[in-house]
Design a protein that fits this description.
Elements (H helix, E strand, L loop, with lengths): L1 E4 L3 H10 L1 E4 L3 E7 L6 E8 L6 H22 L4 E7 L8 H15 L1
Parallel strand pairs: 1-4, 4-5
Antiparallel strand pairs: 2-3, 3-5
Helix pairs in contact: 2-3
């Protein structure tokens, strides 16, 4: 199972519009089953400008990416696209708690 990055705005909008979501303390996980890509996982990351300047937003994205790279191959479902949107608590979170939240969210998708 390979892990691909979502970069196109149209792909993000399609997932937001047609997919489901799971809200946790540190992020919102949007997901959509993709019929075309049965053996791949696609992942995208967003953090709102409301959460701070670029340095703070990039810090949150790095934490989310690190957790996703570790856990998506284990808990993610092949053929799905995921978007993780960081929330304000994510910057202050313990990495262990962030990973627990991601496992919880991925299990809810299943």
């Amino acid at each position: 199972m390979s892990l691909n990055t979502i970069k196109k705005s149209s792909d993000f909008q399609k997932i937001y519009k047609n997919g489901g979501k799971v809200v946790t303390k540190f992020f919102v996980l949007h997901f959509l089953k993709q019929e075309c890509c049965a053996q791949t996982l696609r992942i995208g990351f967003t953090v709102s400008k409301k959460l701070g300047k670029a340095v703070e937003r990039n810090y949150i994205k790095r934490k989310l990416k690190s957790a996703a790279q570790e856990l998506l191959p284990l808990y993610g479902k092949a053929g799905y696209s995921y978007i993780i949107t960081g929330r304000v608590n994510a910057s202050d979170s313990d990495f262990k708690d962030l990973k627990k939240d991601l496992i919880f969210a991925l299990n809810k998708v299943a």
